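Think of the structure tokens as a kind of shorthand, similar to the way a musician reads notation: each symbol stands for something richer, in this case the local conformation of the backbone. In the example below we present two proteins back to back. Begin with the first one, reading the sequence and then the tokens, and try to describe in your own words what changes along the chain.
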Amino acid sequence: MVHFGGAGHSEEIVKRLSGKGLLIGIDRDEEALRAAKQKLEKYKNVKYVHGNHDEIRTILFDLGIEQVDGILLDLGVSSYQLDERSRGFSYMGNAKLDMRMDKNQELTAEKVVNEYSEEKLADIIYKYGEERFSKSIARNICERRKEKRIETTEELTEIIKNSIPKSKQNEGHPAKRTFQAIRIEVNNEIEPLYNTVLNSIMCLKEHGRLAIITFHSLEDRAVKEAYIEAQGKCTCPKDLPYCVCGYKSYGKIITKKPIIPTKEEQEENPRSKSAKLRIFERMDKK
């Protein structure tokens, strides 16, 4: 079993393995890996890998593993990262603009905010944050950084608030969409995702399952499209007695509609409100 993400679900997975299987916990955040090791220190059937889900085939090859029974991808920023204010993921409080999941990489939120062109900033804020005031926010960021470099989450939040009409600031925190967009850009969360899903399916044994938890529409769309591609579709005329188009299917989508958290779960964990779970089962069809 492979789990990409923080330690949140890992203990339950290890318990279900009942000592008979191996859990490979992979995360690009070394602090999250350390937290997982502490939480799971009594379990011996766990391997910890510092890496990215984009590299799944290489990671498994290096471990001498060809295929696995199941993969769980828990996408996006974790509660651990949000709560660790010094990481700069949250618009609550004040911290250096960082937002790196992997602290070894060079690109930070501060570099994005201070070095991207106004046009590029507006583009990513609109594309990854679906923020309709993206041009105004990008323009005001560029005006402010002429005076001094923007270095903290508090400074950025102030600029965003001043860029959105007060009458439109009743749809959640005004900085939420922009922070999401910058975080996605810093960590390259969307562009490789489609291929990551297809590669993950290739790493499954027959009847193995891939479960992916997404937290916003961009992630969910990429996962849904990759699942449809992997499932394949016969394009032969319906009156033909058998398939001649030679389409290839790698399995089937188990969840026609995504599984969403119950009302009780949302009340217990408000951050789960946007979560969607989609599942794919590997079944080779020649």
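Once you have a description of the first chain, move to the second and do the same.
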Amino acid sequence: MQKNNEVKFEVLHLPPTNTNSLLVSCGNDAVIFDPWGKASDWEKVLLERGLKLRAIYATHGHPDHISAAPALAKAFNVDWYMNNQDNYLIGWGNELLDMFGIPHIHNGYKEPVNIINGNIEILPDINMEIMESPGHTPGGLMFYFPKYQILMTGDTLFAESFGRYDFPGGDEHKLYESIHNLYEQDLDDGTYVVHGHGQDTTIGWLKKNNKFFR
């Protein structure tokens, strides 16, 4: 996607290729967003690239966005972060993990650290704006990197549609409100958008092609 000195953003599709995960690295340090798949596969990626995991972030608590998070956090002794309104979803959906041959998130997992809207530095020279976006789940978040003009929407918004709101805790009104609030942010049209699933887009593309992005 984009490289600036030693800063790199990569959209990865670990098997089974279902979710758009994001690997952000600066030198030998790395942060993972929405780690779908097996923790062991993520460990191989980090080892092969000589990266040291510093933290894990999740846009929301559905299993296809956090399946590897607790085990990875424990293995590397790092924190993983998610809005605590979605904590009840951890472990929910183990049947979905069964379908893909992914290990269950068992009781006794390492719990996430709560995050809310605000600005933080995830790695040196990489600042991130946390944007609350409830609707798909109560604690849904989006992550925006202003210096690099990269936005991660999770399942709030897709290329031509939006996330479901019929799962436990979903709220149609709040989802539309979250999408509208993002639109009102008036981000630059060239902002690169990584969705939870499907093709990546830009803010300008969404304005022209996603009828719900209003």
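Compare your description with these statements about the second chain. The chain has six helices and 13 strands.
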